[in-house]
């Protein structure tokens, strides 16, 4: 398994995840939605197949992320950092 | 402001704290220290009257460590102020903490401007008295009002020698093509000498592309041509990187950080050759 030690990289991965969710899912699920483990896996299969990006992002969520991450565009809540289960609220489309 | 002993289950972590990531190793070390001598420095909390709960302004790691150490309550300094004041307090405290990343600080300033705690990035910088380099970078970013573009990109565009029209064009390209900060800086470098179309073509060519994939062996070849030209061959748990003029190197696939460092070396090598 790859290892993740740098928290700046972890922050970028989590923010990339938020950006991906905010750009990919609101058309289908509205401005506020919960993303389960299966949808999370499907997202990375779609945007970055055959890469370790999902593993690294899972590690970033498990080992580094705070429960709530807010940017001017979205708010990401980590409901379960192991599975993971996430809740995203998009502020601006 | 008051001193209080607050039960841990009443304290919530929210986005009021600028810190978005914590290092697990440091947290475990802190938890051991809390187990041995307890929490010596009180947490700083904000009483959120609307939600009737305490929110952490400073001390999210101490809170986590206290939970790991099995404490039931902690000493805290509690502020009963407006949300705007609470954000200012949280940022003032964290500005002096060296391990907070620039991205976290920039993001929090953006949030404060969005929530109208300050009217502009410049006003926020003045209020907190940030260092000169920080101030100027943020001030440059503040000149371009486009919240869809990252602050670091706005700063790079604002400080470039491009005309106002060209700056607008670059920002449009950054948004349309979803360029990263690094790619945006490269685009600005190339824009003046070769025009917008050619510059964006080179920047986009710098992204690795899958050029070959074998479903039987699982072999994949990625190619990147541009600022750094290299070819990645991924097969059976190994990555082979072939950089132009630097030969080939085969490394185990397991450690992605080695690959990242290698690519940095390749790029810095190209930069050095250009300067000569």
Structure description:
- The complex is a heterodimer of chains A (93) and B (276).
- With 93 residues, chain A is α+β, with helices and mostly antiparallel strands.
- In chain A, helix 1 packs across helix 4.
- Chain A has helices at residues 7-24, 26-29, 37-47, 53-63; strands at residues 32-35, 68-70, 74-80, 85-90.
- The termini of chain A are far apart.
- Chain A is globular, with a radius of gyration of 12 Å.
- Chain A has a four-stranded antiparallel sheet with strand order 1-4-3-2.
- Chain A is built from four helices and four strands.
- In chain A, strand 2 and strand 3 form a beta hairpin.
- Chain B is an alpha+beta fold and 276 residues long.
- In chain B, 50% of the residues lie in helices and 20% in strands.
- Chain B has helices spanning 24-37, 60-69, 83-95, 102-114, 121-128, 132-143, 151-158, 164-177, 181-205, 256-275, and strands at residues 2-7, 11-12, 43-48, 53-58, 73-79, 209-213, 220-224, 230-235, 238-243, 247-252.
- In chain B, the strands form two sheets. Chain B has a five-stranded mixed sheet. A five-stranded antiparallel sheet of chain B has the order 6-7-8-9-10, covered by helices on one side.
- In chain B, helix 5 packs antiparallel against helix 6.
- The radius of gyration of chain B is 24 Å and the shape is flat.
- Chain B starts with a strand and ends with a helix.
- Mean pLDDT of chain B is 78; it is low at 270-276.
- The chains are: A alpha+beta (93), B alpha+beta (276).
- Chains A and B meet through helix 1, helix 4 and strand 2 of A and helix 4 of B.
């Amino acid at each position: 398994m790859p290892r993740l030690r740098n928290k700046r990289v972890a922050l970028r991965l989590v923010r990339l995840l938020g950006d991906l969710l905010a750009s990919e899912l609101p058309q289908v699920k509205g401005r506020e939605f919960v993303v389960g483990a299966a949808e999370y896996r499907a997202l990375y299969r779609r945007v970055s197949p055959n890469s370790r990006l999902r593993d690294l992002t899972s590690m970033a969520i498990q080992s580094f992320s705070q429960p709530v991450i807010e940017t001017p565009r979205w708010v990401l809540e980590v409901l379960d950092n192991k599975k993971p289960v996430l809740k995203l609220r998009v502020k601006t489309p | 402001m008051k001193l209080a002993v607050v039960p841990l289950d009443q304290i919530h972590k929210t986005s009021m704290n600028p810190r978005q990531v914590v290092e697990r190793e440091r947290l475990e070390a802190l938890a051991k220290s809390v187990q041995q001598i307890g929490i010596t420095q009180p947490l700083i909390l904000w009483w959120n009257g609307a939600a009737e709960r305490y929110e952490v302004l400073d001390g999210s790691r101490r809170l986590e460590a206290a939970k790991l150490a099995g404490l039931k309550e902690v000493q805290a300094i509690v502020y009963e102020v407006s949300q705007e004041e609470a954000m200012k307090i949280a940022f003032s405290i964290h500005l002096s903490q060296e391990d907070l990343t620039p991205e976290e600080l920039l993001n929090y300033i953006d949030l404060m401007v969005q929530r109208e705690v300050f009217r502009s990035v410049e006003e926020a910088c003045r209020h907190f008295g940030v260092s000169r380099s920080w101030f100027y970078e943020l001030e440059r970013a503040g000149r371009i009002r486009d919240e869809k573009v990252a602050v670091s990109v706005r700063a790079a565009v604002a400080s470039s020698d491009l005309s106002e029209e060209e700056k607008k064009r670059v920002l449009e390209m950054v948004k349309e093509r979803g360029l990263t900060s690094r790619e945006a800086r490269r685009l600005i470098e190339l824009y003046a000498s070769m025009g917008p179309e050619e510059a964006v073509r080179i920047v986009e060519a710098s992204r690795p592309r899958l050029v070959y994939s074998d479903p039987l062996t699982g072999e994949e070849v990625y190619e990147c041509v541009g600022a750094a030209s290299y070819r990645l061959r991924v097969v059976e748990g190994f990555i082979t990187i072939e950089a132009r003029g630097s030969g080939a190197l085969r490394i185990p696939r397991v450690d992605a950080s080695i690959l990242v460092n290698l690519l940095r070396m390749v790029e810095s090598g190209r930069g050095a050759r250009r300067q000569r």
